[in-house]
Amino acid sequence: MDMIQIVGLGLIAAILSLLMREQKPIFAFLITAFAGITIFLFLIGKIGTVLDTLEELAAASGVQNVYLKTILKIIGIAYIAEFGAQIVRDAGQEAIASKIELAGKVLIIVLAVPIIGIIIETVVKLLPA
Fold first, then answer.
1. Rounded distance, CA 46 to CA 44, Å?
2. In a designed cystine with 20, which of 28, 48, 71, 78 is the match (CB 3.0 to 4.6 A)?
3. Are 68 and 54 in contact (CB under 8 A)?
4. CA 83 to chain centre
5. Which residues cross the membrane (predicted)?
């Protein structure tokens, strides 16, 4: 049922945006951005359920909470960067969208470095000397 509502909102926004694009391009962009933000906010509740499940799985498996939080931050940065880049791309600003994606990638690698270091240390310990 949720997916039908999302698709319905997307189709209505797309039709309104196409109708407005010729006469008022700024309104077309605002309709598109509003639809994207509404869909994103609708999905936040669903994401909360997934996060709770992942935390339970991590606690049951003995994974340290700091690693799970770092991975969740990385996933969040990826989604937000993609979402922001798509909205800016809808406004016709491809160069700025590319910069948003680049910033997201840089922030992801900054957060991933400690985890990569721990994985390398673990692999080195497993190798015979």
1. 5
2. 28
3. yes
4. 6
5. 6-21, 26-47, 67-85, 106-127
What string of DSSP letters covers 50-97? HHHHHHHHHHHHT--HHHHHHHHHHHHHHHHHHHHHHHHHHTT-HHHH
Are the CB atoms for 93 and 84 separated by under 8 Å? no
Q: What is the pLDDT of residue 95?
A: 95
Alpha-carbon gap, residue 67 to 124, rounded angstroms: 19
| DSSP 3-state of 48 | helix
Contact 54, 72 (CB under 8 A): yes
Kindly calculate the radius of gyration of the chain based on its CA atoms and give it in whole angstroms.
20
